[in-house]
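Z., the sequence and structure:
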Amino acid sequence: MNFDFEAKDLLQLYLDESSALSKQFPPEVIDQFFMVMAEIMQATDERDLRLLKSRRFEKLQRGGGDHSLRLNRQFRLIVAKTSDPTGPKLLIRRIEDYH
């Protein structure tokens, strides 16, 4: 599945694991971020993400059309579904503390 980053700090983290953002989160969260990004790359559309039960891909109730993917018990990767001429796409928005 195609993706793009809304936040430049997440793009920087994706390109360079030693970026400043990596120091704001526990190492486990950073590791899970990279695992989720690999799963997004392998997915053909959102149905593949929904099959990953441990990620709990779900629409957020607070509006805006955002969805979340579980990184661990505390943190979620917030994304938005979009599309472009090549097909479905995810906009990677932020890592959010859910507790």
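The chain has three helices and five strands. The mean pLDDT is 88.

Let me know what you think.
H.
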